[in-house]
Design brief:
The model is unreliable at 103-128 (pLDDT under 50). 27% of the residues lie in helices and 32% in strands. It has helices spanning 36-42, 75-92, 114-118, 135-145, 152-156, 180-194, 253-262; strands at 10-13, 19-22, 47-48, 55-56, 62-65, 97-100, 106-107, 110-111, 125-126, 129-130, 159-166, 178-179, 195-208, 211-222, 228-240, 243-250. It contains seven helices and 16 strands.
């Protein structure tokens, strides 16, 4: 990845298998940005592990978002847009690229969208139409949309009556496990007692059969102190009868899928 970026770019690992590149002061004229071909070429040959000489093959998807000098969304919004683009690329399959074209402005006479042409990207669409979310994705996104507005009954209706919820380790002040709709009501009560306001943004969704994993950003304001906290975390779940049957926090998407599949 470093070989495909400039020295001035910021490269960070933001998840078990997710990386972020921040490119500042980019001239969006053609020929000045790294291309997806650079990445494809870099990973086209198997990697050789130093000690064992074992070879492994890597596939990847890319999502991007960009701004011009007259459009300045928050850093969080810019990241959200890149994550949304990445989700579209992943639905298309390994090696795909998608660009979020919202909030773009002109720079040096070129539209930021010109980077799509530069990166030889194919839009994450099927027959000219955006890929439709699955019923599971629609339900899970709806559940997170209901997290903050104070609609416990509607939120609880997203879960199976035998739901088993194990909160993420970073959520202190909660029981180790909540079972059934009564347990979820107790969780909601604990949430309302401890947090003045909450907002959850779903940045990435992925499903395999009846199992799904999400990467979310939670913004919390604690009661009493007014302290503001932002927590990013992976949650994994299992579906049954069209409802969320299992839900829990995990360190990574890989760990989440392994744990969920082990319980199948």
């Amino acid at each position: 990845l470093r070989s495909c970026t400039r020295d001035a770019d910021t490269l960070a690992r933001v998840g078990s298998d997710e990386f972020l590149v921040v490119c500042e002061e980019v001239d969006l004229a053609p020929g000045t940005l790294p291309t997806t071909e650079n990445l494809r070429e870099a990973f086209s040959s198997p990697l050789v592990l130093d000690r064992t000489r074992e070879t492994i093959e890597i596939t990847f998807s890319i999502g991007s978002s960009s701004i011009g000098d007259r459009t300045v969304p928050s850093a969080r919004r810019l990241l959200d847009q890149a994550e949304e683009a990445l989700a579209r690329a992943r639905r298309r399959g390994p090696g795909s690229y998608a660009h979020h074209s919202g909030d773009l402005a002109k720079t040096n006479g070129h539209r930021a969208a010109s980077s799509i042409e530069l990166l030889n990207a194919e839009p994450a669409e099927t027959n000219g139409k955006p890929a439709e979310p699955s019923p599971t994705e629609e339900l899970v996104r709806h559940m997170y949309d209901l997290w903050g507005p104070g609609k416990p009954d509607e939120w609880i209706s997203c879960f199976h009556d035998e739901i088993e919820y194990i909160p993420s380790a970073g959520l202190s002040g909660f029981d180790a496990i909540y079972r059934g709709h009564e347990g979820m009501r107790r969780f909601w009560s604990h949430k309302e007692d401890g947090w003045e306001s909450t907002e959850v943004v779903l940045l990435h969704f992925e499903e395999r059969g009846d199992n799904f994993v999400v990467f979310v950003l939670a913004s919390l304001v604690m009661k009493g102190t007014g302290a503001q906290i932002e927590v990013s975390l992976h949650q994994g779940g299992k579906m049954r009868d069209g409802l969320i049957y299992r839900l829990g926090g995990y360190e990574s998407r890989t760990e989440a899928f392994q744990a969920l599949e082990a319980r199948d």
